[in-house]
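Much of the work behind modern protein science is quiet bookkeeping, done one molecule at a time. Below is the pair of lines this work produces for a single protein:

***
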Amino acid sequence: MLLCVRILAVQQQHKRRRITLDFDKPLLEAVDQEAHESHTSRSQFITHAVREALRIRERQRIDAAFEEMAKDPIYQQQLIEINQQLSAGSDDAWQWMGTDVHDREPSR
């Protein structure tokens, strides 16, 4: 019974809402043409386009945050310290990978 209640709650959260949009004629014709070519309804095509636009915007926000991190001197210092701590092991791994399989020492 609890499972049914949770599923119902999730379904209610994702209920569709009818909205009205105003498109100029050439844009609406282009939307209809693309929807037809992709074998979807106008509504499905617009929903997909909006989701994709939101996904792109979220990616842009994440990229912008990473750009800000890259400018942070504390973050830069942490990267240098991590690289110094891991470089010896990394160098050993690259050297080991560069040797012939038969010449490799057994794993420790």
